[in-house]
Specification:
This protein is α+β, with helices and mostly antiparallel strands. Helices cover 29% and strands 43% of the residues.
């Protein structure tokens, strides 16, 4: 991953949304905001197994993503290109599930989180590890 200052890493981990780009069924890049979590050395996301994102990533795992923000002409962020690799390891899936639930709902047991993502081993949800090939960062 891109070398990040402690300030930039903390900033990115606190952001609510990651802007994710994948190649849609017609071959066009499609950008969507989504929830994400930082687990170990990578960022992860989850989506429905039959969602357009999942179908597209099954065909072509190439992707891009941006985490950015700031205000009053003080901007920070990172931008990557790489691949979204499906997480199949049960332990890692559980770690990603817990990280997403904790980040967005305070707990992976929260009823609304379970409504959205299902139970930890729900096959209707797939998780992806965002593996960068290259990227850049900025702190203005």
């Amino acid at each position: 991953m891109v070398k990040m200052s402690p300030r930039l890493k903390e900033f990115c981990d606190k952001q609510e949304l990651l802007r994710f780009v994948y190649i849609d069924e017609n071959g066009y890049p499609r950008a969507v905001p989504l929830w994400f979590a930082h687990v170990g050395d990578y960022y992860y996301m989850g989506t429905g197994a039959s969602s357009p994102k999942a179908k597209a990533l099954h065909r072509d795992s190439r992707a891009g993503w941006v985490i950015d923000g700031g205000d009053n002409r003080r901007y920070l962020g990172v931008s990557y290109v790489g691949r979204a690799e499906e997480v199949t390891d049960a332990r890692l899936r559980a770690d990603v599930y817990k990280a997403l639930g904790t980040k967005y709902f305070g707990s992976a047991d929260h009823a609304k989180f379970v409504e959205i993502y299902g139970k930890v081993d729900d096959a209707a949800t797939v998780y992806y590890c965002l593996k960068p090939d290259s990227g850049s960062s900025w702190e203005y």
